[in-house]
């Protein structure tokens, strides 16, 4: 089982970066729960404050491009891939080699799109079960359903990050599970550890159906 977690950091200069509010808790909970069930787990993680889950191989990365390399290196050997990471969609076009000095009153950063790792895996997949996350602030089902189809996923965990008790940084989450064909399961508020177990149960059901 290959799990990604945490934010990525996209350098602006040697002392600054662009990132997001992901804590990594959901991905770490998934990695720990999969390892506890006996899976061989690789966790590819952006920078977090969390300690490594027991019995998982941990690969630490910073940028989206590094995460892509690490994930692609592990993809062929994986049966299940769970992409809980909050990958930065854009990075500064160039990272300055020296600290940018404070001069002009206004400063514009040019950004360029990062590769969509999950979409790439969806196009490459050959039997792997692919699980994505969707962090949304509006039209949850429409946006998550579109990502499920476009990225060729077997399951997407849709997250309204505006709800109290859900999303970035929280210890709990409130999600809906979407499957190809339009099936939707609504889950109540639960601890991220409990949600990790539910997601792994659903993955188990999907694997059983496959074989
Ligand atoms: N993802 C990825 N690579 C990216 C962006 C996202 O692999 N460059 C993955 C995330 O790990 C997650 C899923 O795609 O599993 C959805 O991420 P999300 O940020 O919700 O969606 P985006 O595709 O980035 O779309 P948008 O930001 O427009 O909502």
Name the structural class: alpha/beta
Please estimate the helix content: 25-40%
Question: What percent of residues are in strands?
Answer: 25-35%
The count of helical stretches stands at 5
Order of helices and strands: EEEHEEHEEEHEHEEEEEH
Number of strands: 14
Distance between the termini: 17 Å
Q: Can you give a write-up of this model?
A:
With 211 residues, the protein is α/β, with parallel strands linked by helices. It is built from five helices and 14 strands. Helix content is 29%, strand content 27%. Helix 1 crosses helix 5 (192-210). Bound molecules: cytidine-5'-triphosphate (CTP). Residues 64, 83, 85, 87, 89, 114, 116-118, 132-135, 147 line the site of cytidine-5'-triphosphate (CTP).
